[in-house]
Amino acid sequence: MTSSLLRYGYVPFMILGIGGAALALAHTPAAPLWLLLLVLAGVGISFAVERMIPYTGDWNTSHNDAGRDAIHGVINEGGLLLTVLVVPIAAALSPFESFWPNAWPLPAQVLLAVLVTDLGITLVHFASHKIGVLWRFHAVHHSVRRFYGFNGLMKHPLHGGVELLVGTLPLLILGMPAVVAEVLAVLIAVQLLLQHSNADYRVGPLRYVLALNEGHRFHHLKWAGIGDVNFGLFTLIWDHLLGTFSFDPQRRFTSDDLGMAAKPNYPDAYLAQLAEPFRRSGACTFTDTPQIPAAENRAAELPATNR
């Protein structure tokens, strides 16, 4: 009974519960502190649920990566929350501030921000698998050897900054209010926890629309080129339109399926990962980007929906 409740209630609780709390607290005097506490609560809940209904127990055990991932999480989440401070300045400088739909209810404004951010980050993510210089920085994220909530916050801060800039720049130009940006920051953090979660949760047919863990595991497939699917942050809408959606409900994943086939010895330490994109041996070439394997091998690895 408890397991079923967690499997079907976890995602609604994280999105509607924590997201709803962020909406309710966004106008309070201590909103930034409350929103930070909500993010920390989301991290704690994520770890707890992964242990109660794990997809695989092995991914709940550190692969000599727990400390490194914690640093990634603090740096990247801290940077995400700090970007909220830029919003009032951007709004004051923008000549298009009057175009922001301030008359809309706050939930509608946040939904607009989510959809715009989803498109921008999806396109940067897609480009990061095609353009060498972007891939070198994005490769940090694909070096993971287990799939759990903190993976969503494990990325090179420069690449994370590019994603966030492209995803939110249209909103900043239009004069997005700080209160919307604060809620958006919480929702991005929650989404990253859900998207990379080791929890064996269920969302039914919504797994074909929402960018959650069942679909995102295919994005982390080790074989180069096979993981060029399911790029969406919040939704898979753009993947359906780009022709990059893929899913096979029968497929099971282990650590052997994750990582980068072309870079099996990618560094594990935090500082080494920050330096790796700048190393001479990792100089930017398009051969650094994922390559499509031979047709017969690709056919064997592809999920059924792409065959």
Quick overview of this protein structure:
With 307 residues, the protein is mainly α. Helix content is 54%, strand content 0%.
Provide the fold topology.
Elements: H1 2-25, H2 31-52, H3 66-82, H4 86-93, H5 106-128, H6 132-142, H7 157-173, H8 178-195, H9 213-219, H10 237-242, H11 270-275, H12 295-301
Helix pairs in contact: 1-2, 1-8, 2-8, 3-7, 5-7, 5-8
Describe the structure.
Helix 1 runs antiparallel to helix 8 and helix 5 (106-128) crosses helix 8 (178-195). By secondary structure, the protein is mostly helical. The protein has one domain (2-306). It has helices spanning 2-25, 31-52, 66-82, 86-93, 106-128, 132-142, 157-173, 178-195, 213-219, 237-242, 270-275, 295-301. The longest helix is centred in the N-terminal third of the chain and has 24 residues, at 2-25.
Q: What features would you highlight for this structure?
A:
single chain; 307 residues; mainly alpha; 0% strand; globular; disordered C terminus
Low-confidence stretches: 282-307
Global Rg: 19 Å
Proportion in helices: 40-55%
Total E-strand runs: 0
Tell me the structural class.
mainly alpha
> What's the shape?
globular
